[in-house]
Amino acid sequence: MSDKAQFTPPSLVLCTIGLALATFMQVLDTTIANVALPTISGNLGVSSEQGTWVITSFAVSNAIALPLTGFLSRKFGEVKLFLFATLFFVAASFLCGISRSMPELIGFRVLQGVVAGPLYPMAQTLLISIYPPAKRGMALALLAMVTVVAPIAGPIAGGWITDNYSWPWIFFINVPIGLFAAGVVYTQMQKRPVVTSYQPMDYVGLITLIIGIGALQIVLDKGNDADWFESHAIVMGTVISAIALAIFVVWELTDKHPIVNLRLFAYRNFTVGTIVLVGGYAGFFGINLILPQWLQTQMGYTPTYAGLAVAPIGVLPVLMSPFVGKYATRFDLRILAGLAFLGIGISCFMRAGFTNQVDFTHIALVQLFMGAGVALFFMPTLTILLSDLPPQQIADGSGLATFLRNLGGSFAASLTTWIWIRRANEHHAYLTESINPYNPATQQFLQQMGGASTKAYSQIDQMVISQGYMLSTVDYFHMLGWMFMAFVVIVWMAKPPFVAKAGPPSGGH
After folding, report:
1. Euclidean distance between CA atoms 303 and 459, whole angstroms
2. Pair 386, 500: CB distance under 8 Å
3. Does the pTM exceed 0.90?
């Protein structure tokens, strides 16, 4: 082992807190905006569909930046890259907070996503390097705990801040946290030996990746507003994305130093594990996006109560994670992953039974139940996908899986909002067909309202809109429920043994 790997900071506890805080800040930012979306959209004068760009712009830019982490860490050193990423993240968060229009906010969210790319992998790498081999599992369990707690805290913090202050503070909160984390890590690790090396940069792969994924995300985000392929811009964006991604795939499969190692899909467990990880995370992301929006826009919840209703999803993962990490390898991991998908799928079918009269407790209990599935999801699927890779490919495999997982979340955000609004409009059109002056139910309602009037018809329309969104929400959760049931079957295509081989410590991105 090199001297770099054996470095011990003056205070192991303080250094761990600094690294964990930076990770917490970044993971928190992926969920804290979810419950504030209706408020942000209203304040900046855009539709809820356009408001989703606040989430997707961060997620897609973060995913694109992830493959650069290895190259940048070798060029500048791991500590320096971590500090740069943390400080630039603080600056980007401040800029998000002072944004006064949606284009401004989206631009700064893109910047925030790019600089956030190296944060988690570098925190993981540095955390592993300061602990002795016997205690590295404990260090990773701590980091996993932070990444589980942050999504719980995100909706609650986002709702409370939005209700009691204003939405810019969901970004301003990163400033003191980030500065403190950077200061602690700098003082603790400034004497850590720096080892840099040169590796050619895959510029063709990077450029085609940015163009292909960027154009695809724009198509998904703007498609519904532009009437999809009736728009020349959407057609052009689709063509550009398809060509760029085709070049990207061919280039990455033939280049000596690819920015994304697609050759790993030759390994069966990696392919199966990545499919269920990306699909499962996309579904998980979609649930946590739609539920707060539905609760606020259709059920009259405040951002705080929407956050509290969603938050119980993290309770069981916090309690179960240490036991899953310790005992999971005693079982066939396909059973644990299958139980995870079964639990999440059942929770989706439970939500498909919701009505406009569902109460807070029922919503929170379903979230709590889903948490058991989430607790069994990440560790088994990650172990399965890394299990048949050679040791020297572990870092690339982990990085590629995380890259695709983040992309899956980004695309899910766009598609989820589109499906939800489209189905609501379809249900609205269907329901209004039966509302006319000759319908007995309509006549009875108008009589209760004191006769036919603009106010009465407006109230009927509001009821129909609410019912349309309710039916759309039910449709969406039915679809997700069957998707998770499919993953229960797919995960059994992996082949044991599922023992992740020892790879380089930088394998965390």
Report:
1. 24
2. yes
3. no
